[in-house]
Amino acid sequence: MRLRTAVNLADVRELARRRLPRPVFDMVDGGADDELTLARNEAAFRGLLLSPRPFEDVTRVDPSVRLFGRRLSLPVLLAPTGGGRIAHRRAELAVAAAARGQDTVYVQSTVTGYPLEEVARAGGGGLWYQLYLPASRDETRAMVARVAAAGYRALVLTVDTPVFGGRERDRRNGFSLPLRPSPRMLLHGASRPAWAVEFLRGNLPTRRDGRLSAWATQRQILASPRPVTWDDLAFVRDLWDGPLVIKGVLRAQECRRILDCGADGLIVSNHGGRQLDGVPATVEALPAVVEAVGGRVPVLLDGGVRRGTDVLKAVALGATAVLVGRPYLYGLAAGGQAGVERVLELLGAEFTRAMALTGCRTVADIDAGLLLPPR
Ligand SMILES: Cc1cc2nc3c(=O)[nH]c(=O)nc-3n(C[C@H](O)[C@H](O)[C@H](O)COP(=O)(O)O)c2cc1C
C-alpha cells in the first residue's frame, strides 16, 4: 500500500506505523495513562447513529464553511501538534503548505521545529497560532507581538496543560523530546532506515538557519508547561486584537465567563486523550458546551475524528467545524506535504459523500435531526 492507494485514514495510519520507529509512532499515536479517553473519543463517534433525510436534491453539495470571515473548503482544520519534526524533516512547513493548498487553516503550535515566521510564510498568511504561555508577562507580550507581526489570523490559547499528562508509552520507550541519540533510539532508528536518513538530514544541529535556536525553545517549553489563570486570559485578550480561541473546554460551567473575558471561539478538546485520562469523549462533551455558548461564538471540536461521518456528526451536534491532529501527522510521516493533502482529500471526499447521503446540500443543512435518537 502507498499513499495513493490508501482508501481511508486508517490506511494512512498504517503507512505511518510502517515508516516510523516504534517510539516515534507511539509518541504520536499514544495517550495518557490507560488511554481510556483516547479510545473513547473514537468510540463515541461510532456510537452515534445517523438518520438520513430522503427526497432532497443533492446533485450539488457544497461542503465549505465560513469561519472568522474566511471561507474554508471543509469544516476541517489542522490542530496544533508539537514535535512534527520527528515525523518528517519539513514538519510544520509541509503542514502549512498543505493547509494553504487545500483552503483550510493550520493551527501552528508553540512547540515547533521551525521559526514561526517561516511557518507563516509557508502557510501564505492564513494560519492560526496556538499559544503556550511563556514564563513571564514580558515574554508573553513579546511573543504575541511576534505572532501578530508574522501575520497569524487567530490566537488559540490552550488551557488543558497545567502539567503534562502521563504518557506511559513514552516512558516505556524511554522517549523524550528533543530526541537524543541513545543506543536504544539508534537501534529503533536502524529498524526504519528510510526514516533515520531523513531524520539525520533534517536535524543535525546547525546555527546558520536558526534550527538550533528553535530546538532550544522547544526544550524550554517542553520542560515547563504552565497553568493558564483567568488573569492570564484577560492579559492575553488585551494583547491580541484578532480572534481569540480557547482550546481545551470540556464543560459548560466556565463558558459564560470565558465569553465575558472576550473570547471569540471555543474548542471542545481533551487534547486527543493525552492529558487527563477519564474525561468524556469530546463529542459527548460537545452538546453541553454548545448549549452554554448559545450561538454567541463558534464552537469547534477535536479528538477522534477519523471519518467524514464523524465531521458530520459533530456539526449535527452544533460544532461549526472540527480539527484533526494525529490523522495529518500520520499523513506527514507517510509522505510529507502530499501525505497531509491526502488526509484532507480523503476526509473531504467522505464528508461530501456523507452530506449527500444524509440529504444536505450545504453545511447549514446539517442539524441534530440527522441523529438517532432524535434530539
Ligand atoms: C503528537 C501530538 C502533539 C500535540 N501537541 C499539541 C500542542 O503543542 N498544543 C496543543 O494545544 N495541542 C497539542 N496536541 C493536541 C491536538 O491539538 C489535538 O487536540 C488532538 O490531537 C486532537 O485529537 P486527534 O489526534 O484524535 O485528532 C497534540 C497532539 C498530538 C497527537
TrEMBL record:
SUPFAM superfamilies listed in its UniProt record: FMN-linked oxidoreductases (SSF51395)
Q: Which part of the chain is the FMN hydroxy acid dehydrogenase domain?
A: 1-375
Active site annotation, chain numbering: 271
UniProt signal peptide: none
Q: Where does glyoxylate bind?
A: 132, 167, 271, 274
- Residues annotated to bind FMN: 80-82, 109, 130, 158, 247, 269, 302-306, 325-326
**Classification via Pfam families:** FMN_dh
- InterPro entries attached to this UniProt entry: Aldolase_TIM, Alpha-hydoxy_acid_DH_FMN, FMN-dep_DH, FMN_HAD, FMN_hydac_DH_AS
Q: Name one GO molecular function term.
A: FMN binding
Sorted alphabetically, the keyword list is:
Flavoprotein, FMN, Oxidoreductase
Q: Would the keyword Cell cycle be found if you checked this record's keyword annotation?
A: no
Q: Does the keyword Oxidoreductase apply?
A: yes
Q: Which cofactor does it need?
A: FMN
Membership in a protein family: Belongs to the FMN-dependent alpha-hydroxy acid dehydrogenase family.
Record protein name field: L-lactate dehydrogenase (Cytochrome)
